[in-house]
Amino acid sequence: MTPTIAQELAAAIDRMPAFPKSVQRILELAREDASTAKELVTVIDRDPVLTLKMLKVVNSAYFRLPRQINAVGHAVVFLGFNATKNLALGMAAIGMLPTGQTAGFDWQDYLVHSVATAAIARRLAARVPDADPMECFVAGLLHDFGKVVMARSMPQRLEEALAACRADGSSLHLALQRQFGVDHASVGAQLVERWRFSASLVETIRHQFGDALPDTGMIACVFAANQICKKLQFGAAGNPFVSELPPAIATRLGGPLESVIASLGDLGTLLEEARAFASA
Q: Given 95, 116, 144, which residue is the final one in a domain?
């Protein structure tokens, strides 16, 4: 990566739209050891848009909660403090997406892909002892967010990279490395690190490619969920290349990609939920 591109991307991260005051306060609470669930609920309740989005996701088929959740306070009871905080930040980040088409992206398709990846990652986490389902959901939701930064800062270069990988069927991250000297995973990791997500979530977003991935439960779940969504064409995030599961991930999840897909059963409801969320 040239110094010029490094500076442009750093500036693009700095220029990302500011979170609403309510979300900025959530970030502050995340840094305060003495913060309480009651304080978190109070902040979220004051933001009706964020509250509505969170309750919509919590009550979706993804979470399979035993009863309808009608208040953020009840969500904290079921999900816990950290999970609720991460979900609030994830929902706020999704609100930053461009609209329509930019840099060759259909952002509604992108959102379908992201939400479906999040939901499948959460479902896979149930079979991996060291994977937190809620962290997997948020990591799946944000795994491609580096593309948003690139679309805002260098749309023409990103569009050229997208066209290159579509033409030869190669993985988008390789085209981005040729174009930028860096891929969207690295950029996305820088962004979520700045937003003070957990180190494990930052690591998961940073490591999305190759056979020598760190062997963690969250990386296994998000990597596999991403490949499943590409294989089944659940939305689209600009990368048509489907990777087989590296041996360590296949071992964790009980087999190769096709076997994991078969084990998940009918994913039709999950896809419809993702489409409904994206079009809302």
A: 95
Helix 3-15, helix 145-153: angle, nearest 10: 110
Question: How far is residue 66's CA from residue 258's CA, in Å, rounded to a whole number?
Answer: 30
Written as six digits, the tokens of 238 are 């600009």
Same domain (yes/no): 156, 266? yes
Give the DSSP H or E segment for 83: helix 81-94
CATH classification of the domain holding 141:
1.10.3210.10
| Segment 166-185, tens digit of pLDDT | 888 888 888 888 888 888 99
Domain that holds residue 236: 3-13+99-279
Phi/psi of residue 105, each to 5°?
Answer: -100, 140
A 10 A CB-CB count for 90 gives 27
- How far lies 106's CA from each of 48, 170, 236, in Å? 27, 20, 8
Give the count of domains, the chain: 2
Percent of the chain residues past pLDDT 90, beyond the cut: 45
Model pTM?
A: 0.89
Give the span between the Cα atoms of 220 and 250, in whole angstroms. Answer: 8
| Chosen domain end from 95, 124, 153 | 95
